[in-house]
Amino acid sequence: MDRFTIFSLLLLLPLSFFSLSEGGTIGVNYGRIANDLPSASKVVNLLKSNGIDRIKVYDSDPAVLRALANSNIKVTIDLPNEQLRSAATRTSYASVWVLRNVVAYYPRTLIEGIAVGNEVFVDPQNTTTYLVPAMKNIHLALVKYGLDSKIKVSSPIALSALGNSYPSSSGSFRPELVDPVFKPMLEFLRKTGSALMVNAYPIFAYQGNSDVISLDYALFRENPGVVDAGNGFRYLNLFDAQIDAVFAAMSALKYDDIPIVVTETGWPSKGDPMEIGASVENAAAYNGNLVRRILTGGGTPLRPKAELTVFLFALFNENKKPGPTSERNYGLFYPTQKKVYDIPLTVEEVKSWKDVKGSSPAPEVVTPAVSPATGNGGGAGKVTVKETWCVANGEMSESKLQAALDYACGEGQADCHPIQPGSPCFDPNTLEAHASYAFNSFYQKNGRKFGSCDFEGAAFVVSKPPKLSSLLSELLKLS
Q1: What is the pTM of this model?
Q2: Is 474 among the residues known to form the active site?
Q3: Alpha-carbon distance 388 to 296, whole Å?
Q4: Each residue's pLDDT tens digit in the chain (479 positions)?
Q5: String of b and e for 389-424 (b: at least 16 CB within 10 Å)?
Q6: What angle do CA 274, 277, 281 make, to 5 degrees?
Q7: Where are the domains of the chain?
Q8: How far apart are alpha carbons 195 and 185 in whole angstroms?
Q9: Which of 77, 78, 90, 196 could make a disulfide contact with 60, Cβ separation 3.0–4.6 Å?
Q10: DSSP structure string for 396-417
Q11: One of 82, 112, 119, 411 is an active-site residue; which one?
């Protein structure tokens, strides 16, 4: 029996996290890190008027869940990372959480999924060990209230969870996560009929490797494609290559029957000078072409019949998000509810939508090819990756900065000796200065890979080292 027959048979198994009857489906992430957004009730009207019937939120805010009641909009809610330990170690906590955040609203509010944490493996609070136990306890609570067949449990992972990612056929999870996390998590997903949630951003791969990745390949435009020597498939877009790398990683662990839900993907309409590719035209092309591709059916080269559910990031531009300019410009809409650009969001709109390619060429950059398929490399723009540094976000609370610093110097194994009392870089003796040094040490140690400079918003990448002190700045440059 050849591989294609095997895959066809596997695809006859139940592969839905959500109920998918025809083509793939599109949802949108409703983030709210902003002080100028419309009310939840106005947001619901905006969603309905644009044909959006599926959203994902990053908490379980009562105002949002009440506004969604009787709207027929399906919603995936989130148990935040900071609650993982309590949910993992106390079944009573998980039970009360489900009672208050799910049972209290369902079925008037169509909660269809629970994301337990978000990109937990890069959480500076070191919550990885609590992930699977928390997922299991939340599921047990759903069983208790008779909702386990209607509401599924999973957890979004970033592509930085992959150890190998290029070519797609060689995809594998980071070795240190396989036995303690991925095997039990995938077994849980199999037993509960759930999907693996994946956050995938082709723009990061393009930015980190634009000397070898064409913009057309990243934007689903016509291009010659890339042949994977391992499986013989020709990939015509970067998104498929990223998703198939995750499928291959699951296949390597004998979990071919588990589907994927893409819980985040998007492209910014604006960025800093170093953020190559961030523009209104490119954002419209990426999201518009992606929506067309998903809604008209068809899976990936490795899973050709696996209809995907994809959540675009994000509904609004969020003015309080920390980091580079792009972080505040992923929205499909301005807070005024005006569209940032026009893309189709329904099957009917897809029929008449066209990707209009501009004439302005992308600027040239010089960056090393780390992982062209999935972009597990950092840095971007008109500078080389070696000319980027990781610094602390001074707008973050002291408690979050301190927790991130403790993680970097502890489990993260950053070299924090120079910032100890009496050492050369102890001064300036400020939390932000010490955190910048530790974050940068962690970032450089991990090869400037994407995801190694985040710490849940406590850090971001810059193209110039911060002016903390002459000695500390020089050491940062040498890192």
Answers
A1: 0.75
A2: no
A3: 40
A4: 444 333 333 333 333 344 333 569 999 999 999 999 999 999 999 999 999 999 999 999 999 999 999 999 999 999 999 999 999 999 999 999 999 999 999 999 999 999 999 999 988 778 999 999 999 999 999 999 999 999 999 999 999 999 999 899 999 999 999 999 999 999 999 999 999 999 999 999 999 888 899 999 999 999 999 999 999 999 999 999 999 999 999 999 999 999 999 999 999 999 998 899 999 999 999 999 999 999 988 789 999 988 899 999 999 999 999 999 999 999 999 999 999 999 999 999 999 999 987 533 333 332 233 333 444 333 333 334 456 778 888 777 788 888 888 888 887 788 888 888 877 777 788 888 888 888 888 888 877 765 677 787 777 777 655 555 545 555 555 54
A5: bbbbbeebeeebbbbbbbbbbeebebbbebbeeeee
A6: 135
A7: 25-352, 389-476
A8: 10
A9: 77
A10: S-HHHHHHHHHHHHTTT----G
A11: 119
Residue from 76, 118, 154, 156 nearest 456 by CA: 118
- CB contact burial 263-299 (16+ within 10 A = b; e otherwise): bbbbbbbbbeebbbbbbebbbbbbbbbbbbbbbeebb
Closest CA to 244 of 306, 154, 153, 182: 306
User: Which entry of 82, 112, 222, 264 is annotated as an active-site residue?
Assistant: 264
If DSSP codes are grouped into helix, strand and coil, which group holds residue 255? coil
398 is catalytic: no
d(CA 306, CA 13): 11
H-state helical runs in 276-332:
280-295
